[in-house]
């Protein structure tokens, strides 16, 4: 059975960073709903146009749109055979129920749900210094993980930018949405016994080691 993981946590806690390590070291396929939306916006698609207003305001894109978009991603053979790490999805109970149904139809299940946890002031500091590659989505931090050359992606050489939803006011809104709409997803998974809570305040490697400890089933 492939290892199918879900990473849940507030904005800026390090979901994308940890998903990158899990992908690199365990050979999992990284499926990040936020990255998919940003790709659609960059490509100027109808889906991107629908999603952009919600993202700019720090609100969730409606469930029907998000579920439809993510369901189509589970059909790739690579994701189904290697296992995947979901980053940013599900973030409502309706999305979690839809995910379970979709995976059941495909003959697989979520193996573990890793909850990355850190107080609001820690994640705000992380997001304020984040720089993201416009081209490949690689993530840096001006203090804790600076690129070799300022403003330039180490991986592909493209320009690094501050995400448009990383303004202080929007960060606060995203945090509020996490606490009200995504926290119940943790309760949903706690009932299944699959939830593993990880202190996200350590270094990137410390957090990775703790998270990996929870994968030994
Ligand atoms: P999404 O892209 O998923 O954003 P998010 O959940 O707000 O999370 P971030 O990507 O901002 O943070 P992260 O946890 O990945 O942290 P990172 O690793 O980058 O969603 C964006 C929007 O899309 C949503 O607001 C919504 O509108 C929409 N959307 C997406 N999915 C949706 C869904 N399912 N339903 C509805 N709408 C949806 O790290 C942050 C920074 O910290 C980086 O600079 C990094 O270098 C640094 N860092 C990471 N770990 C550490 C560490 N241990 N120590 C020090 N620094 C660290
Ligand atoms: Mg992310």
Q: What can you see in these coordinates?
A:
The strands form two sheets. This protein has a five-stranded parallel sheet, sandwiched between helices. By secondary structure, it is an alpha/beta fold. The mean pLDDT is 93. The chain has helices at 15-26, 33-43, 46-57, 63-71, 77-82, 93-105, 120-128, 168-190, 204-213, and strands spanning 5-8, 29-32, 84-87, 112-117, 130-133, 139-141, 160-161, 195-199. 48% of the residues lie in helices and 15% in strands. It contains nine helices and eight strands. Bound molecules: BIS(adenosine)-5'-pentaphosphate (AP5) and magnesium ion.
Strand and helix map with partners:
Elements: E1 5-8, H1 15-26, E2 29-32, H2 33-43, H3 46-57, H4 63-71, H5 77-82, E3 84-87, H6 93-105, E4 112-117, H7 120-128, E5 130-133, E6 139-141, E7 160-161, H8 168-190, E8 195-199, H9 204-213
Parallel strand pairs: 1-3, 1-4, 2-3, 4-8
Antiparallel strand pairs: 5-6, 5-7
Helix pairs in contact: 2-3, 4-6, 7-8
The structure holds BIS(adenosine)-5'-pentaphosphate (AP5) and magnesium ion (MG).
């Amino acid at each position: 059975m492939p290892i199918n993981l879900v990473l849940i946590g507030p904005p800026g806690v390090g979901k994308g960073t940890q998903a990158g390590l899990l992908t690199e070291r365990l050979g999992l396929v990284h499926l990040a709903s936020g990255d998919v939306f940003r790709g659609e916006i960059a490509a100027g698609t109808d889906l991107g146009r629908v999603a952009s207003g919600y993202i700019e305001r720090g609100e969730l894109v409606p469930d029907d749109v998000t579920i439809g978009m993510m369901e189509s991603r589970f059909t790739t053979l690579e994701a189904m055979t290697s296992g995947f790490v979901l980053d940013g999805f599900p973030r409502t109970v309706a999305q979690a129920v839809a995910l379970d149904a979709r995976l059941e139809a495909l003959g697989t299940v979520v193996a573990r749900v890793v909850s990355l946890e850190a107080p609001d002031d820690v994640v705000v500091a992380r997001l304020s210094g984040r720089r993201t590659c416009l081209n490949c989505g690689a993530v840096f931090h001006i203090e804790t993980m600076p690129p070799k050359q300022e403003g330039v992606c180490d991986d592909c050489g493209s320009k690094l930018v501050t995400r448009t939803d990383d303004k202080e006011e929007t960060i606060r809104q995203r945090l509020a949405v996490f606490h009200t709409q995504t926290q119940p997803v943790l309760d949903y998974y706690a009932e299944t016994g699959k939830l593993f809570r990880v202190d996200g305040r350590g270094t990137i490697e410390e957090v990775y080691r703790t998270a990996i400890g929870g994968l030994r089933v």
